[in-house]
Amino acid sequence: MANHLLLLAATILFLSPPTVTAADSVVLDMDGNPVEAGSRYYVQTLGSRGASRGGLAAEPLSGICPLYVGQHRSWTNQGRPITFYPADPSQKNITLSSDVNIAFGLNGLCRNQGVWQLTSNGDGVFYVTTNGEIGNPGAETFTNWFKLEEALPGTNSYKIVYCFLVPVPAGNGKSHPDSEYCEQLDATLPGPWDLSLLSLVPIDNPLPFFGFVFKKVTSTTTATSSSY
User: Which molecular function terms from Gene Ontology are attached (predicted)?
Assistant: First the structure.
């Protein structure tokens, strides 16, 4: 795994700006409704009770900011809601394989919008922090863009994915398009309180909780976590 992460660290310079072309398959929430851009959702897991984990939140590791995104170990803690913002601002629903920003919301302490950003510690280990920005697709914001892919067919469960572009060497005088290499987020790193921090793992790794599911926040939804 260490060598694998070091390889990713070496290829991060070859990431390309996100595209704004959406896939045809709409991401669905736990109730089977399309996941809407701009609405708030709790991120839960498909498993139940002992086979599940809690929701997502963000806490500091040292100092105050940035905050690091993690998953509660207790399935009874639903964490804090997130919002999806697609690269194409005219897109009303979130679709598979399309680039999206993910954000917890305004944070007065860190003076930002809580936007997820892939961050490296310099030793080949990647974290997700909340000091990104919404929109402005381009080379300067490539670490702010994620994708959703299907986890288990027919269950409305998903993987949260980050994709790298790996240059393909030219051969016989011919150029080749870059190859996209994607990994998924899983709560694998120890964090503060009862959080396990999100990091990258191979996209074909089976998730212990069978995938993420999204519960829309409504007027009757109640929060059970005081974490940001």
Answer: endopeptidase inhibitor activity
CA distance 75 to 32: 22
Residue 147 CA: distances (Å) to CA of 85, 112, 179, 191: 11, 22, 16, 24
Q: Is the sign of the CA dihedral 141, 66, 148, 27 positive or negative? A: negative
Closest to 78 measured CA to CA, from 42, 103, 47: 42
pLDDT tens readout for residues 65-106: 889 999 998 888 999 999 999 999 999 999 999 999 999 998
Instruction: Write the CATH number of the domain with boundaries 2-17+28-216.
Output: 2.80.10.50
Alpha-carbon torsion angle 192, 196, 197, 203, nearest 10: 170
Both structure tokens of 175: 């150029």
The pLDDT, as a whole number, for residue 165 is: 76
How far, rounded to the nearest angstrom, does the alpha carbon of residue 147 sit from its chain's CA centroid? 7
With CA atoms as reference, report the closest residue to 88 among 17, 20, 16, 34.
20
pTM: 0.84
